[in-house]
Amino acid sequence: MPERAYLDWNATAPLRPEARAACVAALDLIGNPSSVHADGRAALGLVEAARAQVAALVGAEPERVVFTSGGTEANMLALTPAIENGADRRPRDLLLVSAVEHPSVRGGGRFSRQQIVEVPVTAAGVVNLDALRRMLKPGTRPLVSIMLANNETGVIQPVSEAAGIVHEAGGLLHVDAVQGPGRIAVDFRALGADLLTLSGHKLGGPKGAGALVLREGLHIAAPLITGGGQERGLRAGTENVAAIAGFGAAAEAAARGWRAEAADMARLREMLETGLKIHKPEAVIFGAAAERLPNTTLFALPKVKAETAVIAFDLEGVAVSSGAACSSGKVQPSHVLAAMGVEAALARGAVRVSLGASSRESDIDAFLNAWKKLSESLGKERRGLAA
Ligand code: PLP
Fold first, then answer.
1. 70 lines ligand 1 (CB under 6 A)
2. What is the pLDDT of residues 259-278, one digit of tens each?
3. pTM given for the model
């Protein structure tokens, strides 16, 4: 069977060898990290080593890292009115989320529907900071959630500028940074985030481990899962030691290698976008006017449905994904493109290509060959229709 080209890294990244080795080694330990005997302490040692690795990835203190089952759970844990800031224990009464957030943020976590307000983005997909300023009403106690980089377009958000605006208005800032590490610099303090979400499987760890990083002095008074006192009472239940150990190893590898990996991704992405336009100059690349992650291209060809394109690529051995969401059997145009003002007919054709640390020129060649075939067959179909 010919080799496949995996170009869907924003959905999930292949396991890094270091992460795999760490998971396998952890699976062979018997102990429960809460047990005081030597076996328990050995398991706890793995969890704490991983905590230090994940903290180092984003320049945070290890004791500020809370492990969760992934990015979704970290977002749910963060988005609660019950965030205490030092001695200030009054609940947050408003949640502002950007219109392009992942569904796990857009849903608003544990805020009521009436408390959630969407902050618009520009046509390039960047959060509108003037609108944010206007929406931060005096006398409210807002929590604001803005992602570091968008999972569909790759557009990087002006998070540290937003942090200044939010803090000046007495608010707190949560940053869903799931798509950042391994591709761009992610520094918890420089971003000015109060809370930051990470997910292990996006950077080469196993699926099912993530983390919420909390600024010093912040405390979540309403954990999502209560029971034993694991994760300083913020996330009860025996830890998924193997997944956490794999997450830690992936974080360490990403922290070490990301600059060189990102430079490679940028070069390959340039090849890809140039080739896309050569075969079909009318292809539209979304968010191209903004700063983007070096690995992501979201594009569409007028009048072509994303499902058709994704299946055609798949048959040619190339894994890409559609920018449209499929719910209850009906393909909906992406909320991200809708928020950018892209018309629904074009948005329905959005296809996302996302690269990663082990992507190679041969993957781009495979993609462009498939693209050439697809665009030629479309040309024929259209000529046939017109005749
Ligand atoms: N946030 C963003 C921006 C994402 O892209 C994703 C995953 O697609 C998540 C959150 C959810 O992360 P997880 O799959 O670890 O629950």
1. yes
2. 999 999 999 999 999 999 99
3. 0.96
